[in-house]
Amino acid sequence: MMILVTGCAGFIGWKVSKKLLEEGHMVVGVDNLNDYYDVKLKEYRLKDLQNHKNFIFYKVDIEDFEGLKEIFQRYKFDAVINEAARAGVRYSMENPFVYMTTNANGTLNLLELCRRYQVGKFVLASTSSLYAGQPMPFTEDLPVNTPISPYAASKKAAEVISYTYHYLYGIDVSVLRYFTVYGPAGRPDMSIFRFIKWALEEKPLEVFGDGAQSRDFTYIDDIAEGTIKALKPLGYEIINLGNNNPHTLQEVINLIEDYTGKKVSVQNREFHKADMKATWANIEKAKRLLDWEPKVSLEEGIGRTVEWFLENWDWLKEVRL
């Protein structure tokens, strides 16, 4: 297939693109390479993709309708996977406008171009942050109408406009709600990346709250596999992709100590109002519709991530957090 992957230099977009290329598909990747976090990581991921002959890259922002239009005119896509987004709950409170323009308007741009150029399949990366305040484990039918951060609100807007384009124009849409994705070449604003780097630097770990909060940490390869499986025709479906096995931050810290061989100290900060105390995915729908469930345990995933850090420490030590 010929697939457009937006946000291809981002963490999840990179791994999804890489797996598609390894399966023999053609991938056109777009990314604006913004500096929300250190671009060294985006450059690393992009260079990895450019080793594949079936990969074509355009530096384009999904807010740029005309720039995207030129790409849609040039290629006949079988599907679009929208991984481009402004991520991060806390930063969305500092700059809410860019979250809405990228996550909502950018998604609208892509959907409108799918309509105009008859692209029948659209996969949207969404978030478990929408489930704040809901009973666990989170199921896709919960009424997620009270997002507690601009980030979550912008993702809800993207889900809603995706449904509108499915209803009006028949575009087949898979909305994937990801649960705390981690792994090699991850985002440096996420806890596991920061904790490993701080541990290797023998610096204190900054923890918001007491460390008892839990997350359904999900390894990047599992997320990429589920995303690609969601390319199948489904109509309009919202599907959780999570590990279905939450762990506390303290458990993560203990594993990082084990794999790095470093004893760490912790500096506790006040728990952030826009954060969630816990996440836990019910993945029965993913099992039923996608024949998907995670394969990588937290122990194995942390081990692989620490190994990647050690192999790349010569440049990772310069990455800013």
UniProtKB/TrEMBL annotation:
NAD(P)-binding domain: residues covered: 4-304
Alphabetical UniProt keywords: NAD
Keyword flag NAD: yes
Keyword presence, Cell division: no
Pfam families assigned to the protein according to its UniProt record, in alphabetical order: GDP_Man_Dehyd
InterPro entries xref list: NAD(P)-bd_dom, NAD(P)-bd_dom_sf
Protein name per its UniProtKB record: Nucleoside-diphosphate-sugar epimerase
UniProt organism field: Thermocrinis minervae
Source lineage: Bacteria, Pseudomonadati, Aquificota, Aquificia, Aquificales
